[in-house]
Amino acid sequence: MGISWYNPRVRSIVYQTGVLAAVIAVVWFFTATAQENLERLNISTGFGFLDTTAGFGIIQTLIPYTEQSSYGRAFLVGLLNTLSVAVIGIVLSTMLGFVIGVARLSPNWLLAKIAAAYVEVMRNIPLLLQLFFWYFAVLRPLPGPAESIEALPGVFLSNRGLILPDPVLDAGAGMFFGALAAAAVAGFVLVRWARARQRATGQLFPALRVAAALIVVLPLLAWAIGGTPFHLEYATRGDFDFSGGVRLLPEFVALVLGLTLYTAAFIGEIVRAGIQSVDRGQGEAAAALGLKDSTTLRLVVVPQALRLIVPPLTSQILNLTKNSSLAVAIAYPDLVAVFAGTVLNQTGQAIEVIAITMAVYLTLSLATSLAMNWYNARIALRER
Amino acid sequence: MSAIDMMGPPQKSGSVLGWLRRNLFSSIGNTVLTLVAAYLLWLTVPPLLNFAIFDAVWTGETREACLGEGKGACWPLVWANFGQFIYGRYPESEIWRVNIVFALGFIALVPMLIPSAPAKRFNVIFLLVVYPLIALVLLAGDRPGLPPVPTSEWGGLLVTLVVAVTGIVVSLPLGIVLALGRRSSMPAIRMLSIIFIEFWRGVPLVTVLFMASVMLPLFLPEGLSPDNLLRCLVGVALFSSAYMAEVVRGGLQAIPAGQYEAARAAGLSYWQTMGLVVLPQALRHVIPGIVNTFIGLFKDTTLVLIVGIFDVLGQVRAQLSDPTWTVPQGALTGYLFAGIVFWIFCFGMSQYSSFMERRLNAGRGR
């Protein structure tokens, strides 16, 4: 076939060239306009502003930061605040989500109905509204430090946030945590050895139970020999503020609470669907082979359910990370609030700031998907 | 051979007690769970009902009605500002225009949602093309007999619906094009579609809105500066197109290859294959997914308040700082009201989505 319109090869090349040319033209038009506008408005471009002194304070900093620090430092502070909320939110919402998913399938009628109601209420109300509710309607109206609510000994709830006891390391700490690490490594090796032996000889060894015992007993021994590993320093309640203790800001608590409760409803549905998708015959076959209920669950049901749970769970984890940007609405200093909010307003470097912010979220999304894809590939069905 | 005595029916099954025993108290563990669950209910439901109904203030003209110990929700706050929550600051003399838009949308939507209603094709064209144009003319005005109403005066449920409906009207066709592009055999088109889809799915909507409101003006020629709402609509539309594309792609993947091959064998061109054979089947498969995307979009419209546009939630929040209605339980009342509004919309849509899902699966069940 020669060069003719009826040759699909030719047509495909013509179409693609056309589309590419159109895209390039549009991009070129916008870049040229932007350059013109920047010159007209006298806005300098480039990332030099990152080294300039920021001059504003941030209410939660995980790394040293003062008003004299640079915009680049402020960016790091915001990024770490985003990451801390995201990581804590992911862990808590996954745990709560599994509990809710299992509860929805519980033979206990009342529990199943409560879990169902929870899911239907939570996932049909916008997350931003829930954040406003927790922050403006629940946490902010709490009493001040003097009348704060002492939920547990040393745990105070007030309009200053959630105050927890501060764990302070003692002399025995090194030995204690060393023993804990040693027990974990020993347990891991033991489980692998037991599995290999079972494959080779068929002999069973209660590796999990022994490993659990190791993890409890070894640190306790270290405690007895080396002395107390740490003690809790309780906060003291003053008239206007607390002294000592670990303080979680009300913004932080509201954000973690809102993200966790909202995302857990979605994860609960994913878990329920995953468990329900495992054929009833699988469990029956396992029982017919003489496996115990717990073994059936661990070796037959869960591995098959996980295969269906992991891909949508990944997108929920990504959603939670992206949703943490709603922090800006309740003034928690996350990446968007600090960088795309304050820094952008002060410097006016809209293009650079928005580009960096989006690049960070794209990188986080990509990293999370890669990690979850790797995990998914490990547990995926291996067919012949 | 003597007959065995006939066995009676299992005791208590079928009775209320039997049901309780089976479902709530079948074992010690189950009983503990039931008690814990009942305790949870007791902790949450009575206070909520007391606040929202029994202790609530239902009538009153001013904030004084809601002051005092032990009073629950301050519903007069909601009644007094109801118009604002629905229309924002839309001029009172022009509100009939908004009402016509609401009514038209409702009248066109109902037959669309009923599977057996006729003339779906015209209905779709009306809803996706004609209706948005009518709504635009009526709402924005600037025509003879229709004085202009700037978008800065729009608000409340009106803005929520405008953002959500624009999102769906743009994202459906754009999403279909992107989904086809992602499955195209032409590498350049496939790459561009993938980049577009993954970019929008990888960034949070908040940053998209920031981009639309701060960065977009820099990319447009001088003098051409669309107003804030329009810029946000562009952002929301592109954002939801990427999600819609993935939903449609799922539907395309569910169509067996034989359908494509048969269409090719019958001599249909690419667009005929897609338009007459593949898309009608694929889209029907993904109606639940489309509705779910719409629910997500509807909830996400609340984010526009971050860039200074007042949707329902934004209006409620603005109202809470109004000194004439400052009451201690104001925040709880306002957010409870907004929550109920959103819940009714979203729950209704999700019920519709699962109804369609059951309907689609009806033929496949055994």
List the helices and strands and how they pair.
The complex is a heterodimer of chains A (384) and B (366).
Chain A: H1 8-41, H2 71-104, H3 109-122, H4 127-139, E1 149-152, E2 155-158, E3 161-164, E4 166-169, H5 173-201, H6 207-226, E5 230-233, E6 236-237, E7 242-243, E8 246-248, H7 250-277, H8 280-288, H9 293-323, H10 335-347, H11 350-379
Antiparallel strand pairs in A: 1-2, 2-3, 3-8, 4-5, 6-7
Chain B: H1 16-23, H2 28-54, H3 75-80, H4 82-87, H5 95-113, H6 120-140, H7 156-182, H8 187-202, H9 205-215, H10 228-253, H11 257-265, H12 270-285, H13 287-300, H14 312-320, H15 330-361
Helix pairs in contact in B: 5-6, 6-7, 7-8, 7-10, 7-13, 7-14, 8-10, 9-10, 10-12, 10-13, 11-12, 13-15, 14-15
Notes on the protein architecture:
The complex is a heterodimer of chains A (384) and B (366). Chain A is 66% helix and 7% strand. Chain A contains eleven helices and eight strands. Chain A has helices spanning 8-41, 71-104, 109-122, 127-139, 173-201, 207-226, 250-277, 280-288, 293-323, 335-347, 350-379, and strands at 149-152, 155-158, 161-164, 166-169, 230-233, 236-237, 242-243, 246-248. Chain A has a four-stranded antiparallel β-sheet with strand order 1-2-3-8. In chain A, strands 4-5 form a two-stranded antiparallel ribbon. Chain A has a two-stranded antiparallel sheet with strand order 6-7. Chain A is globular, with a radius of gyration of 27 Å. The model of chain A has no long low-confidence stretch (mean pLDDT 87). By secondary structure, chain B is mostly helical. The two termini of chain B are 44 Å apart. Chains A and B meet through helix 1, helix 3, helix 4, helix 10 and helix 11 of A and helix 2, helix 8, helix 9, helix 13 and helix 14 of B.
